[in-house]
Please model this.
Amino acid sequence: MPPESPRDRRDRITAAVAAGLLCLALPPAVVLVSDAAEAADRRAALLWLAGSAVAGAVVPFLYWAPYRALGLVPVAAVGWWVAAAVGVWADTWPGWAHGLFPGLVAGALARGRRGPQPAGETAGVFGAAAAGAAVAWGFRDRPDLAGYFVLAVAAVLVLWSWARLFRPLFELGFEPVLWVMYRVRGAGPGLADFPRAGPCLVLANHACWLDPLFLAKVLPRPVTPMMTGRFYDLPVLRRLVTAFGVIRVPEKALKRDAPEVQEAVAALDRGECVVVFPEGYLRRTEDRPLRRFGQGVWQILKARPGTPVYACWVDGGWGSYTSYRGGPPTKGKRPDFRRRIGVGVSSAAAVPAAELAEHLPARVYLMNLVAAARAHLGLPPLEVYELARGEVSSEPDA
Model:
């Protein structure tokens, strides 16, 4: 089994706590729904609760990205808290509201789950369900106290999920904005076998500022991208990218010391998915779709040679609002609207040890891997990259 990253462990524990809170408050809520209905309508109220719970649990599975489905948990938790607040102060407990929102929470937690749950966490969830049933029995003659109990537990679920699942919530909320501007589609065998956990390295060409977002859109798990200090150090953005674990890349023309390489190696050791644009900067010209890769990616693989490499090609970014085609990004250009973006993802590649012996052959080998990913988008192949005659691996970077 691949190693579990701190982010995966945090998400797993968060899912267990959220599921425990759900199981703790759900039995009293079911009793309140039943008690609030007239005897003739009780069966209908419970049927509404069960049917809406099933419908809510199905919704997250209709969304293609398992990780971002976790962002539904904080939203559904707020909805359930509002329903409980209305129930307490207006003495009304509609079955659909107390089925739909808990169903959404349960479905999103199941959809976003990565790896098996330890026995202790599973036992804790069942224990919470038993405790909830005991609370429901103890408050059977005091529905007002049961209502306040559900309201309090729902409030804890809101606070916990918003604090712990902010990243998938943010990505889920930002996706409609991205959808208005771009139609991003992924293709290639790498998407089907992309690992839900464990270390991997994603390499891609870099034609516009938003390439990391296009990759994050099609990959089924959270990624750890790199970002130049020019953007990383912006006051508001810095808080966000720091929370998301983005690796800062100092802007230097010639790097003798590259701390970002060590950070990338450390991220792989933590079991994360690291995204690297090995060209080092954005595409500048029409006739050069791929520039010579820098040494950084070779250094990363030299340090961790067994890392699975997923080569990608992002098409459609060149010529977009944030590319250099026709001038600097965003300058004198119209914002993009429903622009087509294709992301080709090749299957995992294990770079042979012989290719990693010297940095120049390794970099050319990786360039050809990335260029070959164009085929998954139906694009014409690029000319095979080769070392120039007389070029040796000891020469400095161009």
Summary: The CA atoms of residues 60 and 108 lie 5 Å apart.
